[in-house]
Amino acid sequence: MATLDISFKPERAHLRRPNRGTIAERVVPQSVSGRYRRLKWAALAVCLAVYYVLPFLRWVRGPGQPDQAVLFDLERGRLYFFFIEIWPQEVYYLTGLLVLATLVLIWINAVAGRVWCGYFCPQTVWTDLFLLVERVVEGDRRERLKKQGSGLSPKRIFEIGFKHTIWILIAMATGGAFVLYFSDAPTLVSDLVTGRASAIAYAWVIILTGTTYTLAGFAREQVCTWMCPWPRLQGAIWDPEALTVNYRDYRGEPRGSAKKAAELKAKGEPAGDCVDCLQCVNVCPIGIDIREGPNFACINCGLCVDACDTVMGKLGRPRGLIDYEAWSNIERARVGEPARRRVVRPKTVGLGLSVIALASAMGVGLGMRSEAKIAVIHDRNPVAVRLSDGRVRNGYTVRLYNKADDERSFRIAVDRLEDAAIEVVGDDTLVEVASDATRELRVLVTAPMGARQPIGFVATDIKTGSAVTAQDLFIPVEGGP
């Protein structure tokens, strides 16, 4: 039966000389080359390029509109994403996007475990970047470990200072790029450099510089293991059929050196392919030993696969001792059953269809939404007033939204209520609304006494003839005849 280790006790791995002694000690991963490391470099380059370049892309929207392709315009209360414009009243689209992202993440987890964490998570991307700087300045794992145990020399002080200077510059670029999503990027860059930017902009740059420097430079694996909620969910959503990084223990055990394995095989005794070189542990950015079985802390980055394949290649042994493999296939192989690759199964199909359905619904909703909208709120006190002629008057607050790039005129009317008269306080029923703006109206509706009944408000665009509607209630006077 498949189980997932959620204890992450370092003393278990300590028996095999891991690259950490206690949780408080930092992991010092070793560099490695291979196809998965190359994939991680490619993912890092793409993610950083998107993050730093996206604020500078332009998108023409018309006169008076911002031309930044992706912009969170807090002043106007808009979210711009290329051709999409989200108003505050359409926050449900953002909610839908968060739900969609969650479904995609769960679907990816069902297919390939925490592969998002290993390749595309911002914490992983910036940690890899910081580690690259550390290796270039201070050397690889063995050199860094030797320097940690030595005293401070002028050269060592220079290395430490130079490394942290580059880290801080990267962190400042990260914080600076983030605030560019909330204002016109070229203008804000100029303002930040010349000191003309607002105090809030500088405050957020400082805050994000500090968090990036701390999390990517010092917290690293602690974020992926303890601070992030995603690994905590692995115990509930972990799937033994997912393609995760696993150790083929039926092939690797019993462990021993190449010389010892040759002697055992000469005697006809069992000998595994694992030479206990600890390369899989040394390259792990989290500091776990994947040979101990599935672990919730594993981010599925595949670096241990590259390290093990390199060793197996040098020894002339088959690659894949550590590989992306379903845990259920590991258990099948132990009892001599053939492997079954079940990427397409009811769970992945169901999650995939859910993602497609939600994405399609959001796409259709965005495509069909109107450039105008009307919202109605009934008065609460009083809800109705009886006039001297026996009729009843209800008051409403009506808000018109014009999302078009030009001014629009709307004719306000009511339907579904017989013999009703409508009055727009201080205005005519023909109302003008400026471009990309809203207008609030005070509307009074008068009708003969009757039962409580629905009422519809209709705003007709004079230019296009299109209409938008909103529903509410017409309420009689309490205790009336």
UniProtKB/TrEMBL annotation:
Which GO terms label this protein's molecular function in UniProt? 4 iron, 4 sulfur cluster binding; metal ion binding
Q: Record keywords: Membrane included? A: yes
Superkingdom of source: Bacteria
Q: State the Pfam families in the record.
A: Fer4_18 (PF13746), Fer4_5 (PF12801), FixG_C (PF11614)
Chain segments annotated as transmembrane: 41-60, 91-112, 165-183, 199-219, 349-368
What are the alphabetically sorted keywords of the record?
4Fe-4S, Electron transport, Iron, Iron-sulfur, Membrane, Metal-binding, Transmembrane, Transmembrane helix, Transport
What GO terms fall under cellular component here? plasma membrane
SUPFAM superfamilies, per the entry: 4Fe-4S ferredoxins
**4Fe-4S ferredoxin-type domain location, by residue?**
264-293
Recorded hits in NCBIfam families, A to Z, give: ccoG_rdxA_fixG (TIGR02745)
Protein name (record): Cytochrome c oxidase accessory protein FixG
